[in-house]
Amino acid sequence: MRRRLLLLRYGEIGLKGKNRPGFEHQLRRQVAAALARTGVQGVEVAWRNGRLLVVPPPGQEAWERVEQALGRVFGIVSFSPALGVEPERGALEEAALTALEEALREAEARGRPARSFKVEARRVDKRFPLGSLEMNALLGALLHERHPELQVDVHTPDVRVQVEVREREAYVFALTLPGPGGLPLGASGRAMLLLSGGIDSPVAGWMAMRRGIEIEAVHFESFPYTSEQAREKVLELARILAGWSGEMTVHVVHFTDIQTAIYREAPAELGVILMRRAMFRLAEELARRRGALGTVTGENVGQVASQTLESMGVINRVTTLPVLRPLITMDKSQIIEEARRIGTYETSILPYADCCSLFVPAHPATRPRLAEVEGAEARIDWERLLPEALERTVAVSVRP
Q1: Strand 51-55 to 76-85 pairing
Q2: What is the model's pTM?
Q3: Cα atoms in the Cβ-side hemisphere of radius 13 Å centred on 336
Q4: What local confidence, expressed as pLDDT, does residue 364 receive?
Q5: What pLDDT score was predicted for residue 353?
Q6: What residues contact residue 342 under an 8 Å CB cut-off, 6+ apart?
Q7: Rounded CA separation 318/76 (Å)
Q8: Are 327 and 297 in contact (CB under 8 A)?
Q9: Buried b (16+ CB within 10 A) or exposed e, 100-137
Q10: Alpha-carbon distance values, 234 to 227, 298, 311 (Å)
Q11: Which of 96, 300, 309, 350 has the highest Cβ tally under 10 A?
Q12: pLDDT given at position 1
């Protein structure tokens, strides 16, 4: 028996104790969903001896599509193209040599030829007659004999040939591809992401998803002050995020009347605070309707006037839901780096203004007092404006 497969690894799920089976079940569901989105037929998924195995059908294109999909499944820390062989000495020797030579060709193709190697064997099935150290010595000697140009380096080798001997099958591999890590999507409930067209909020949404939180997005638009291009830009950002999560719902809220009422009735310096409190009120109601347990924002301490601790405290007073701010302590350069890595940056910097950039006062309050803010809000007809905004909200489903 010899077959090619992908060996998946997960990280902190293994630390979940009695809750571990639930997380593993969710991970398996997310892997199946990601594979279904590839359109590749005939992919086998199996959970065996604590390992999640994926067996794509033959063909380079199918393998590449499956690998790309697995690289976007939250909860997977890494995965390796592996050879599954009979747990016996001859099969292990042959597979180790194949794995080494494939890794050498891969390194050569990347322009970084390998100069050294190491064998790392693990005997999970203790009935196997060779111990881990004996396998290291045996396979290491064989590989060095076949490739004397390579040095054996047990500390920082260019190639690690890894062997796992389990009860019914042994796995041999030398390449490891990264996954996003975190927890399986949906394992931590659902939240509403306040999604603007900027750099920060898509990154915040991605980071929340990485912690297992399923996301629906809320976008506030002030048409005709904001353009159709601004709405399309946000939907495109949601499509990029959907590439990591699958289909996503975006609730587009008509915010024009609320924003103009704030601009007309409230002191200019409190306008941003009142706008954010209105957004949280609307997001909370949408969350209640959709069974979401919290809100996620791209706020970051000290970045703009509404992101001081005093402002956040006043804004939080209008919502009973947990407000998650994954970027809260990150530098802007870190956020931009993350945006580039997950693929949202180039869309975020397109020059279409969203409602957050409208009616911004020259000197916004950075240390607002709650009584002062509530006094300003009392001039606004919320009982009419909030239901009207919800009534005109449109839910848009986006797919990767």
Answers
A1: unpaired
A2: 0.91
A3: 5
A4: 79
A5: 74
A6: 202, 203, 206, 240, 244
A7: 37
A8: no
A9: bebbbeebeeeeeebeebbbbbebbeeebebebeebbe
A10: 11, 14, 25
A11: 96
A12: 63
Structure tokens at 314: 């006043």
Position of tokens 């597979």?
A: 95
Task: State the amino acid at position 155 in one-letter form.
Answer: H
CA distance 237 to 235: 5
Question: Identity (one letter) of the amino acid at 116?
Answer: S
Instruction: For the chain, list residues with pLDDT below 70.
Output: 1, 49, 305, 355, 358-359, 362
Dist. CA 278–CA 389, nearest whole Å: 10
Number of CB atoms found within 10 A of residue 333's CB? 8
Largest CA distance in the chain: 85
Torsion of CA 342, 217, 260, 300, to 10 degrees: -50
Q: Is the dihedral of CA 191, 336, 347, 198 positive or negative?
A: positive
- Listed residue (82, 81, 76) closest to 11, CA to CA: 76
